[in-house]
Amino acid sequence: MGHPRDQDxxxxxxxxxxxxxxxxELIDGIPYAMTPAPSIEHxxxxxNISWLLKDLLAECEECRALLPVDxxxxxxxxxxxxxxxxxxxxxxxxxxxxxxLIFEILAKSTASKDKNSKFNLYEKxxxxxxxxxxxxxxxxxxxxxREGKYIKVVDATDERCDFDLGKCRINFDFSxxxx
Length: 179
Fold this sequence. Notes:
tt1808, chain A; 33% strand; 4 helices; two-stranded antiparallel sheet
């Protein structure tokens, strides 16, 4: 059971979320502002990841790389991963199924959420691979799901890493992402 004061906190839903201005995420009914906007370095790394994924997935007819898009997990949880790969068809305003690969790029304002809340959320939701990218350290921590738990595969700086996406496999070169 939660803290007695938790009952006093507002609990928001997707219906509330869609009315808010600016960029937000909603985790277990708690809103998180996605401000300030990502830094130039953050955007450059995200852009590099996006280009690499697009190139690596060019031959795969099932999988595609996306930039931040709403992933509605349930009525009180909506997140926007920095970079992601889906290997299923989605046609609505948001994703309804788990991506197979997610990259989150750390920023001071989001680091704790990315390392903790989102780590646990993505693990629980069955995201096959989760990569936490630290621009300051030029380090990417790569986790893969094994029997329902994330296991660290590699701390990558200039390493290559194989990702089994189910429908296809890609070999990602981390040396090419740094701004």
